[in-house]
Amino acid sequence: MGTGDNLSKGSQKKGSHDGLVEKLMNEIASNLNNEQFGVDRLAQTVGMSRSSLHRKLQKRLGISTSQFIREYRLKRALEILRQEDVTASEVAYRVGFSSSTYFSTSFLKLYGYTPGEVKNRIEISASSITANSNTENKTLWLAKPSPRKFILLVLVILGLLPIGFYIVNAFSKANYRDEIDIMEKSSTSIAILPFKNLSNNKESEYFAAGVAQIIQIHLNKITGIKLISDTSMAQYAETTKTSPEIASEINVSHLLEASVQEYDDRVRVIVKLIDAKKDEQIWSDTYDRNLVDIFNIQSEISKQIASELELVLSPNQIRQIERIPTKDIEAYNLYQKGKHFFNLKDHSHGKGEKSIQYFKQAIEKDPEFALAYAALATAYLFSGENLYKDDSVKLVEELALKAIALDNTISEAHVALGTLAYMYEWDMAKAQKEYQHAIQLNPNNSNAYIYYSQFLFSVRGESYEAREHIDKALRLDPLSYVANLKSAQYYFYEGKYDKAFEETSKLKEINGHNMFSYWINVQLYNSQGFNDKGIAELVDYFERVPPHFLSIDTLKISYKNKGLNGVYRYYIDSDLRAVGAPSNLGEFGLYADAQTLGYIGDTEKALEYLEIAFERHSIYLCEIKYDPYFINLRSECRFLSILDKMNLGGYN
After folding, report:
1. Which end of the chain is more exposed for a tag (fewer CB within 10 A), N or C?
2. Considering the chain, what is the average pLDDT of its residues?
3. 177 and 231 fall within a common domain
4. Do residues 478 and 450 touch, judged by C-beta distance below 8 A?
5. Which residues form a coiled coil (predicted)?
6. Residue 273: which CATH number?
């Protein structure tokens, strides 16, 4: 059904729908110049989920929620441009666009002319229609005629503008994620290449990386800019690829490259901003100052980049960018070393522990260093078994709250609090609030999207929104192991096996020694009846990473004699022989074995393992509700009791 039909039908309905649209417009008007007021906040104000609000607006108006917000802002912008003598940049900021370029592009797309042409055009009444108007039909919801006039208006549209109807109908069929993609492609995007260390001291590599990272943090505070994660950019440290090649691989419009040199008590930073697709330098500068002035240099570079990219900075954003993270250069260097080893934790044994020590030392040097507190909270949170030692759970919360008390703009601290509430405290309302706040503070925080995506899937069962958020994370951090892993799992659960295989192939490239990619492939093959290929995948992994608790030859014999169930049973029995009892298994092993027991139909043992995990408050248990391995347990009273105690609720 086309948008025109939806409008006509919607005009005949009284009450909730019309009242909803008016309430939504009032809420946007109240937050007009707040660029962070988006779909999540709007949905909250009317007590709906994002998906519910999206469905209602699609049904009522034929447009997505993000389009609804954007078009209202643009309508107000048109009114201001007609009534006042202001520039496009000034209006962009007043109506909630942080990028004047994106504002002008959106305005042109909607009205058919640029903001600068408004004064030169004949004023057209918002309630009138002309056959040659460049304004698309989808903006008609902004007018508020009476029901009789509204029906007449729709009839006129249907009679005089059939081609417009076709365009709107096609647009209404585009899904919500496509709308997000359009916004991202229209937005300014940038990636920071690893800064080159020109100092003789190898230790200065951490300092050079730190200069880049703080600039990244500053740019993250600017709404309307897509910024690729520094972890994904590490692969380009020694690259010989051209700017257009890099831009094509990571889908950005601009690159920032720089060199950093420490000498005596001074620092020299040479920075270049490149239009990557044209391979043209659009700005460069050299900063040669005292070392203690490095934070001012970073702020100046960040503001200059915003200026060159025609991004409008609000006074609050300027204050945040100019904030100095620490006055102690040594604390700053220790923090950067911690970040370096934390980013390596998935690839090198013991690196997570090393990062914790450096973050602690940074805090000892500067007890007011907010970023160090947030980083230490995150390091503890994702340090595996350490979360159950030395009251680390309470410590994570204390560290995150301390970071927020020192600097309430730190998104990472809210991710830590949200993940703690979700995985350990099982306070799902708190978890959702923290994740959403983290994304509002930093829309480029890939980790916030990753863990909120997992929350949406495993707690709310919202597979569509989970996919939307994990795709966003992958656009920001294409080489994130966790993001690619979640994407592969979602595709598997959806039955999109080819796409899942594409993701596991990426996972092996990122880290070929991690079992997850191989295990998902086993599941993918088995689900399609290719059991031989599934076992071959498992054997391939164990040949690469020899197991200490089972025999590959015995595993093959188990498969030959008893099929898949024989392999799974052998795997579980090998675990038990190694540790003696289920209660002695590690957190991941306990949950993984419970999954396997659920899969092979040993309900009693699966429930026993899950109840042990529950008593431990295992962080892996948070995914239990919609885990397909437990689908046969969903009617079991003991299973439902666990869900209830975890505040996960039952099944509709």
Report:
1. C
2. 82
3. no
4. no
5. none
6. 3.40.50.10610
